[in-house]
Each structure stands twice: as C-alpha cells, then as structure tokens.
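Budget justification note: compute hours in this period were largely spent on complex prediction jobs such as the one shown. Inputs:
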Amino acid sequence: MPAFDIAAIEQKWQDQWDKQKTFVVTEDPTRPKFYNVQMYPYPSGELHMGHLRNYTYVDLLTRYKRMRGYNVLSPMGWDSFGLPAENAAIKTGTHPREFTEAKIPVMKDQLRRLGAVYDWTRELASHSPEYYRWDQWLFLQLWERGLAYKKKAAVNWCPKDQTVLANEQVVDGLCERCDSVVERRELAQWYFKITEYAERLLDDLSQLDEWPDRVRTMQENWIGRSEGARFDMQVADTDLSFDVYTTRPDTMFGMTFAVLAPEHPLVEQLVAGTDVESEVNDYVKQALLHSDLERMSEADKTGVFTGRHAINPATGKPVPIYVADYVLMGYGTGAIMAVPGQDQRDWDFATKYGIDIVRTVQPPEDWEGEAFTGEGPAINSGFLDGLDVDEAKAKTISWLESEGYGEGTVNWRLRDWLISRQRYWGSPIPMVTCDDCGLVPIPVEDLPVLHPDVEDYAPQGESPLAAVPEFVNTTCPKCGGHAKRETDTMDTFVDSSWYYFRYCDPHNSEQIFDPEKVKYWMPLDQYVGGVEHAVLHLLYARFITKVLFDMGLSPVQEPFARLFTQGMLVKDGAKMSKSKGNVVSPDHYYDRYGADAIRLYELFIGPPTDDAIWSDRGVEGTSRFLDRVWRMGVGESGDLVDRPETDDDVEVLREAHRTIERVTNDIDRFSFNTAVAAMMELSNTLMSYLRSDAGARRETFEEAYGYLLRMLGPMAPHVAHELWEITGGGSMLATEAWPEWDPEMVKRDVVTLVVQVNGKVRDKFEVAVDISEEAAVELALGSERVQSFLGDAPPRKVIAKPPNIVNLVAG
RNA sequence: GCCCGGGUGGCGAAACCGGUAAACGCGACGGACUUAAAAUCCGUUGCCCUCAAGGGCUUGUGGGUUCGAGUCCCACCCCGGGCACCA
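Corresponding output:
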C-alpha cells in the first residue's frame, strides 16, 4: 500500500489542472508550438491497460514539451460515428446517438482518472451535426473538383455488417472489422479519386523521415507503383481488340497465349454465337460467385478457351485467348499476355492446358526450375536477341511506340477509395438524384443533411435511411422537380481524415476552419496511434490533406511530421482486447496503486515500439519506487544535516545533472523505459546518500531532489505535483521549467581504464580522464596480472584509447 | 516468393559512434527490524569448474573483417509484421 492518500492527491490535482486551465492554449507566435495528437478514439467507455499505454505517452509529451517552453496543443475528440455504436445500439434497442452520448462522459472520466490533460475546449465528436456538416462540405468540394464520383462496379460486400468495404478494409479476403468472408457484388457506389494522387502520395513518403520505416514501406507496397508497357492486341478474324499490361515487355516473343479476367467486358462479345458460348459463360458465372478468398485458395489454376486467337504483335502469330480467374479485373487492364517461359503462373496454366512454352531469356546452365524470372540475355526474340532484360524492355517499348501498338506506362496497385456505406450511423452523403438533372449536389448553405430518426437501424442490404420516404423524396436543388436523396452514408474514415485540422478551430460555424489558425498549428509535431492504421487512416488523411492543400486551405502537403506507432499490450499470448476476453481493467490498479504507478509501469514496461506483456508485478515495482520518492520527500527516509559541502556532496549533485541529461535525451528519442530507469538510479543514489555515515547535506539533497521531482512531473504528475508543493517548490509544477544540466557538472574527472590482453579484460584502474597515452600504457604494463598473461615477451602490439581502454596483443 | 522488424540471464529488459555484456526493474536467496507477519532497509544473484584465490564460457547457428564484434559483412535457422495468382 502506498505511503500516501492516492485518491485525495489525484482528485486534488486533476481539479487544479481543470480549474486553472493549465493546458488550454491559443495561438502564440512568440513561443514555438508543439501540436501533439493521439488518434482520436471510438468512445467505447471501456479503456483498458493497452489503451492507457498510448494515452500515457501522449500525456507525457504534452507535459514535457510544456515544461520545455513549447506552446503545446493537445486536444481530444471522438470518432463517434460507425458500426460499433450502431451495432451496440441495435443490440440494446437504443438510438446510436443516445448510446454514444452516454459513453463519451464515461470515457472522459477514464482519461481524467489517468491524469491525462487536454485542451478540452477543443473537444469534437464526428457524430455531431456541427462536425459532419463539414464532412459533407468536404464531399461537395471533392465533387466539384471531379474527385468524387459514383460508379457501378464489382465491390467488396461484408455479409455480416451488410455494407460495402473499401479495398483497404479487406484483409486476406476477410472483413477487417468482423472477419467475415467478403463477397463480391455489382453495385453503384461512391468513390474518392485517391488514384489521382497516387504519385504524390508515393513520392512524398520520402519527406516523412520521422515516420517508422515499416509504415512507409506498407504504404509504398499498398500504392504499388510498377513500370511496364500497355499495348493493343487484335483478335484474329474480328475487328475486336483488347489492351494488355505487362511489366516484362522484353518477353513478348515468348507470349504463347493471352488471358482475360472473367469480368472482362470483351468476354461476352468474343464468344457470342460460338459453340463455346455456354461453356465460357458458365465459367464466368462460377468465377463471379466465388469470393476472392475462395479464388485464391484454389491450388490449381482454372480457365477456359474462348475459341478465339489474338495476334502476338512481336511474332505476328495467333495465340489462343483464355478466360481464367487468376487474372484480376481490378489490376492493370484485366487482360494479360501470358509468357509461360518467364512467369510461373503462366507456366502452371500452360502445362495444365497443353500450351506451348518458349523461353525468351536464357537461364543459367544449371537451371532446373520451371519459369525463369531472373536476368539473362534474350533468346528466340528476333531483334531483341542478346540484349539483357533492361535493354530489351526499353527496346520493346520504343518498338511498340513506333509501330503504334502501345506505350511504356506506369501502373498503380492503388484503387479509388470506396466511401459509401449502407449503414445509418455515418455522415449522409449530400447528393440527390433528380428525375431530370441526374446527380445534383445539395447546396452548401443547406448543410448539414441531418439524419432522420428511423424505426429500425438494423441493416438490410441498403441504408436504413432508404426506408424513410420523407427523407428520400425531396426536390431537386437545380430544377425544383422531384428528386431522391442519396441514402448511403460516408465511411467513418472520411471523418477521421481531417479532424486534426478542425481541432485548430473547432467551433467555427462559418467555414471548415480558419486557414490562419491552421497555419499556426499544422503540421502535427507528433502523432501517436496504432500501426493497424498504416494503410487506412494514415493514407486517407495524407490524401485529404493534399486535397486541402490544393484548395489553398492547408499550409502543408503532409499532415503528420512525426509519427509514432506503439506496440501492443499482450496478455495470455494475445493482444489485449475485449473480443479476446483478456483485458486488464485499470480500476483495481487505480484503487490499489494509483494512476501514477500505472503510468510509470506503462512507460517502464519496455521499448514503446515493442509489444509488451502485462505483469502485475511490474506495477508493484513502480509503485515501490514512488513510495521511496515520497518517503524521501517527507523526511521519512533520513534526516538532513546542515554542514559545509564535501566532495561526496558534489558527486551527488553531479549524478543528478547526469540524470537530467539522460532523461532529457531519452524522452527526446522516445526511450521512456530507460528514462524511468535513470530516475530510479537517481532515487537509489539519494537513498544511499540519506543513509550514508556523513548524512545528507540539506542544500545538496534538496537541489537534487527538486530535479528528480521536476523530471517526474510529466511521468507521475499527481505525486510529483503534491511533493513539489509539500517541499516548497511552488503551487503548480506543470508550469515550471524542465531542469537543465550543467555540462561542467556532467563531466567526469575520474574514469575506469580497462586493460585487456588479447581483447580480454585483465585489469582495471581508476584514472584521470585526461590521462596521457604514455601514462595509460605504463600503468597497463605495470600490472602484475597483465604481466602474468603477457609472459616474458613484450607485447607485439599496443592499442591505447585513453582514458577508456588499453589492449595489449601478446607477442 | 519478395520487403521490413526481431532473437541477449529464471523473467521484462539495457548497452546511443565497434571499446568493461547484462544498467534499471521483477523474481529468488541471505541478513536487519518485529513476539510474529506485512511493509521497509541492507546485501547476493549470467552459466560452468573451484573450499578459495582464480580460471573458463556466454548475446539464435556457422563463417569472416578487426587489436577488439551483441553492434559491421556473408550464409543459414527461428519468431513477428507487411505485400502477393498484381501480370
């Protein structure tokens, strides 16, 4: 049990921070700004230890940077639209709004209990009309710029959540949220044209040098730039043709067949009226029925011959055209030239269906594999023979271009962002379909388009809003005639793609935000969140920021200057989560150890980027540390004496200065665990000092202890503030300056000189830091132990790096 | 298959530029205080041989570079993550 009344102290200081508006900020050009944000949470009202880890990091930074003299903006808001609230509401029979708005105060209280401080005057919630009005406004801006469009296409459908999903929300063929097998449906949906920004999104990754490499790599992979060629293939005996995309134009002479994706629009025409028509159509139908997951898990490639041939432009010879589901409609042109000699997939297909295989790259002599995808000279390739792969690619592309068959192109894996959802609890899309004018946007002055209350929120394949005639039937803003409202709502990732702009000016009812305020705060100096958003939120947010930049509203092209993705908290071998049933609720720990011990343990548990395993014992350790600090502060660990300063006293102070240096550097490089360790060491030093024979000199102890408290302020704020006040430091530690170390005090004048023989430590000496090389070597050679290892002969070689090491190589 | 991380005591980990491997914490063991326990305080704690003095070994495995390697290079094994019938 702690030596102090945790509950009273926590309550007291949480009230003080609130009342004194300690962390409420405005733009202040005289101070450097620090904009510090944690990815805004869904207000579940159920924080567990895993969540607290992030909140602790962000709060530590807020408090630390404030003490370092920064004007720190650390706001908080709620990702309050979306399926969790809607599903919970359906289950409990309440309105999603009621459900959500009941949880927000619970969540705020949980954050308060941790001692996390925010500028609450800037709180926002995406489900409030004041917020989603600007979602809708943003949508209309994208529409005007041609970046929002509606199109019918095969889309990902989650049968459980009863809505479509963006590509980013499908993981291995399963719904990212609920793990259902994703089906495909042909539906008209709304998209944002993120592909138009593919190149900028890729190129600007190189500016993000304070992002984790792995997140940048994940985005790079997701955007998926590839270089190749696109060219036209004539279908023999018809006037039909189709485009293919390849990254290996150099292998064109080896094309022995062509493949169309089952969804390819040409398939129907190719076989119409032929005797394979029904066979091909059956295959296509089968393929469409299968989910991507099923298609991918089939070991064997399947396909069917269309009876048609295409002309290989390189050889002028006809090659059979197949339909096969290993070719995807969504990538490239949905049609390929198949080169079994150089592509394993094509090899597999060719051997199964008895198609010719021609090698066009010479494999090494000892080659025993099937398709050869490596480097080598071109063979069987006419004018390309003898060229290496890169030369042959270039030559083929210029040949294609000069002959008018096609051209070199860049292809992207990234698809447009599907943003419409067939659910209730999201921002309604502000569009109508007029009987006469077609798609017409709602005028901005009529925003927001509000949710009507509906009887039944349960999803039924289309938005519940579609069941409300008063909502659906409206007049066309353009012609006044009859029109129907769009009933789909927006993906909640639209809400979260710009909320950090809104924090800068959260109550603006005239515009989405004041660009001047945004200019002061943006970009975020620190953004903290889970790596699970690497290609979801973080990609969408970068895209929307670039759109806002192009509109002249954002001062930056990249919103997040520094990104930190924390590791997970693991218990019983799994990520702590409600669905796994392994959550550790903080309540018991708050009561027993207090918020500060929890915070310290969250910091101390391991490197912030790594996954960590929750341990009850760990909290006991940090709690004990806090107790020791407390007892030293209130005079229970030893008495102070007034006496002249000795060398030993100075050494204690030096240790304190070294700790300041270590802790400051550790926090700056996000090494919170070692920062805590350094403070534990200082606390141990002070404890020994109090218990030393000479006793602790009052002035020295108080100075060193004061440094310790100030450093503890951002980490264990309640206890540190209370002790700061008790020991006469002042009434508000949070607004004190972070201590600075004196470079003179940090210097050591005596260090350990290690003497090695053949690289093995044989002796050690305490020496002056400025010891000369000669003196160090002399000392080393004078050691009896060293001599016993050297034998009679003088060392063959002497390496001296004074004052740290002398290594003697025996002769 | 390709691309990123990572592998160090009984456990969580530290070692920032190639220079004493294991800081700090947990656990364990011993001691002080106590009638006793808890709490607290003091000490020991990588492994092996040894009464000891002392010695040997040790950062996934095997090689290499270097006076010196947890750290750099090569090959491999294992774990985690990303991408992947992407032409």
